[in-house]
């Protein structure tokens, strides 16, 4: 049978990415980040759209070349339709329309959040059988989302818990900013935490019923704590950087895993995956590994290159939709907000 080649395109935030899969096996996954936002302490939407415009042609060109195929071999193009920044999403959406018309192949729309969950189904090679089964629970933790998702099938997912305010990644980034660290602060906190004592300081944990999260209280408590300490000692942050990072990271992980344990208990599910940028956090990975061993859960940790935004996850989501012939027409427009 003729293989299925899917080109995936991702431009929902500040990473321009293109990937090619052959029957679900990744042949290429190219990601161009955008350094331009660093000095602003966060993503500037207008600058992101412009950088996507500059990056998209070379990124797709390299993805196709690295996959060792010709563009005429492609079966379909999958693109992120949303949620995300509208100006950024328009770049992949419009480019997909043009390329699909030129090649006369169908377009498949992809929900970015579903794609993060399905990143685990991208095969590294033909013999890769590490994909999670159904149902399983996915902890989706990124800069924009913190959700506990019950994954019943490729196209059947239910959010059973989510943040009512900030996302876990935002908590990392905003607290890092208060410490004077550059954006994005999550990876820097992770690195500093490895040298620090996680029990050095204690910060507020929310007491929310059910499976929902809240991180805004932690951010405020962290801010007030630092403000008070700085009154006494203006070098407090500098002198306690590693301990602050380790204690903050431990608090965020405790909050995340507390609700996750409850979700596993309430659903009776025993298989678990984690996705989104924060799933790169080494402390979270270690704690999850220990927890999974203790409870005999089957744990799926994504390769680091699949934790942040990437087009391989878009292509695999598109692959399963392609098999069901779920295509969209040329009047499709992006959406900035959506759930799974
Ligand atoms: O999924 P993602 O790339 O995209 C957005 O949702 O925008 O996630 C980015 C988030 C940022 O908040 C970043 O600080 C966080 O993931 N992040 C980390 C780590 N690597 C990335 N947070 C903690 N530890 C890390 N190692």
Would you kindly provide a brief summary of this structure?
This protein has 340 residues and is an alpha/beta fold. The chain is 42% helix and 18% strand.
Low-confidence stretches: none
At the fourth level of CATH, the homologous superfamily of the largest domain is ATPase, nucleotide binding domain
Mean pLDDT figure? 96
- Overall structural domain count: 2
Distance between the termini: 33 Å
The biggest sheet, with number of strands, parallel, antiparallel or mixed sense and barrel status, is:
5 strands, mixed
Report the total helices: 9
Q: How many strand segments?
A: 10
Ligands and ions found: 5'-O-[(R)-(carboxyoxy)(hydroxy)phosphoryl]adenosine
Beta-strand portion reads 15-25%
Keywords:
Nucleotidyltransferase, domain 5; globular; alpha/beta; 340 residues; single chain; binds 5'-O-[(R)-(carboxyoxy)(hydroxy)phosphoryl]adenosine
Describe the structure.
By secondary structure, the chain is of the alpha/beta class. It has two domains: about 5-125 and about 305-325, ATPase, nucleotide binding domain (Nucleotidyltransferase, domain 5, 2-Layer Sandwich); about 135-300, Nucleotidyltransferase, domain 5. It is built from nine helices and ten strands. A hairpin with a 2-residue loop joins strand 2 and strand 3 (about 25-30). It is globular. The mean pLDDT is about 95. It binds 5'-O-[(R)-(carboxyoxy)(hydroxy)phosphoryl]adenosine. 5'-O-[(R)-(carboxyoxy)(hydroxy)phosphoryl]adenosine binds near residues 144 and 187. The site of 5'-O-[(R)-(carboxyoxy)(hydroxy)phosphoryl]adenosine has 19 residues, from helix 4 and helix 5.
């Amino acid at each position: 049978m003729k293989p299925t080649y899917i080109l995936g395109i991702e431009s929902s935030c500040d990473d321009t990415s293109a990937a090619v899969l052959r029957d679900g096996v990744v042949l290429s996954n190219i990601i161009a980040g955008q350094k331009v936002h660093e000095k602003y302490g966060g993503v500037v939407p207008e600058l992101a759209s412009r950088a996507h415009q500059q990056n998209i042609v070379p990124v797709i060109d390299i993805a196709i070349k690295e996959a060792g195929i010709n563009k005429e071999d492609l079966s379909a193009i999958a693109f992120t339709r949303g949620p995300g920044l509208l100006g950024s999403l328009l770049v992949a959406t419009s480019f997909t329309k043009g390329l699909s018309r030129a090649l006369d192949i169908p377009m498949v729309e992809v929900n970015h959040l579903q794609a993060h969950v399905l990143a685990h189904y991208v095969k590294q090679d033909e013999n890769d059988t590490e994909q999670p089964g159904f149902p399983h629970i996915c902890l989706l933790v990124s800069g924009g989302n913190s959700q506990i998702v019950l994954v019943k099938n490729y196209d059947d997912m239910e959010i059973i818990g989510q943040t009512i305010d900030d996302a876990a990644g935002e908590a990392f980034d905003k607290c890092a900013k208060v410490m004077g660290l550059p954006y994005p602060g999550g990876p820097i906190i992770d690195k500093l935490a490895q040298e620090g004592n996680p029990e050095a300081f204690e910060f507020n944990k929310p007491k929310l019923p059910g499976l929902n999260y809240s991180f805004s209280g932690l951010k405020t408590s962290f801010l007030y704590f630092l403000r008070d300490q700085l009154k006494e000692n203006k070098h407090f942050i500098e002198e306690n950087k590693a301990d602050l990072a380790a204690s903050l990271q431990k608090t965020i992980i405790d909050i995340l895993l507390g609700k996750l344990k409850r979700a596993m208990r309430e659903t009776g599910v025993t298989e678990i995956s984690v996705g989104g940028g924060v799933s790169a956090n080494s402390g979270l990975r270690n704690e999850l590994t220990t927890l999974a061993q203790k409870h005999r859960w089957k744990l799926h940790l994504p390769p680091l290159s699949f934790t942040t935004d990437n087009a391989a996850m878009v292509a695999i989501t598109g692959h399963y939709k392609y098999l069901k012939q779920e295509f969209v027409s040329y009047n499709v427009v992006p959406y900035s907000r959506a759930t799974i």
